Amino acid sequence: MMTDSRSADRDAATDALFKALSDGTRRALLETLVREGEQNVQALTQQSGVSQPMVSRHMAKLKRAGLVTARRTGRETWYAARVKGLAPVIGWMAVHGALWSQRFSALEGLGK
Amino acid sequence: MMTDSRSADRDAATDALFKALSDGTRRALLETLVREGEQNVQALTQQSGVSQPMVSRHMAKLKRAGLVTARRTGRETWYAARVKGLAPVIGWMAVHGALWSQRFSALEGLGK
DNA sequence: TTAACCCATAATCATTGGGTTATGGATTGG
DNA sequence: CCAATCCATAACCCAATGATTATGGGTTAA
């Protein structure tokens, strides 16, 4: 049930998700997880080009947005991409109706 | 041709696009254009809940991101959603390969 | 137990960015 | 020509954020 006509674009989860994706460093971190699977903070720090604390904070934000999961074993924290996390993005695009939806067929062409 | 292994997530256009979508007010403005078609700044201001200068600045950002087009006639500026503008978002998702691509089939179910 | 290691948080800084009101340029209407 | 209208830009405020170094808590190893 829609409580406000503007709620679709003001949804807190959707907002957190788009904000999480709006930074290049975070997107790069996420892509590393997608490509290379679960990684600990050490490994992510080495490939990211930013400091370890920054990686921790970026991962926290990605986690709050639902884009990664965290699994702690001993002193290491292992992060993994959470595939379902992008669903709200797809949902947001779908909300715009047939106009945008038509373009989704182009996905097949883009799928490399 | 890929000039840098990290370039996919550091591409300036992609960054501008995600940043443009990361604000709820801008997404609401964009959705208005998608739903109701071309609108001038006046109309957008009335429905947005923010001041006219803020609308102008948001629209400028959406335009730089390639999500809207602007057409000036006399003293009015008419903005329209640019459907192709979302392609890089879809492209970015596709870059992540089959892992994400599988989920795109869920679009059909989400398409209302 | 002590040292080394992994990670998260705190403190700090500079920049970005959303918001406002004020202003001004360009266009239309009397 | 003058006034009203439409929009963009400027000036400003404050909160959020990306980044750093410093610190500290918890875990493994010697």
From TrEMBL, chains A, B:
UniProt keyword Glycosyltransferase present: no
Residue ranges occupied by any HTH arsR-type domain in the UniProt entry: 6-101
Entry-linked CDD domains: HTH_ARSR
InterPro entries named in the record: ArsR-like_HTH (IPR011991), HTH_ArsR_DNA-bd_dom (IPR001845), HTH_MetalResp_TranReg (IPR051081), WH-like_DNA-bd_sf (IPR036388), WH_DNA-bd_sf (IPR036390)
Keywords, sorted A to Z: DNA-binding, Transcription, Transcription regulation
GO MF, any single term: DNA binding
Tagged with keyword Nucleotide-binding: no
SUPFAM superfamilies found in the cross-reference section: Winged helix' DNA-binding domain
PANTHER family for this protein: TRANSCRIPTIONAL REGULATOR, ARSR FAMILY, TRANSCRIPTIONAL REPRESSOR SDPR
The protein's name: Transcriptional regulator
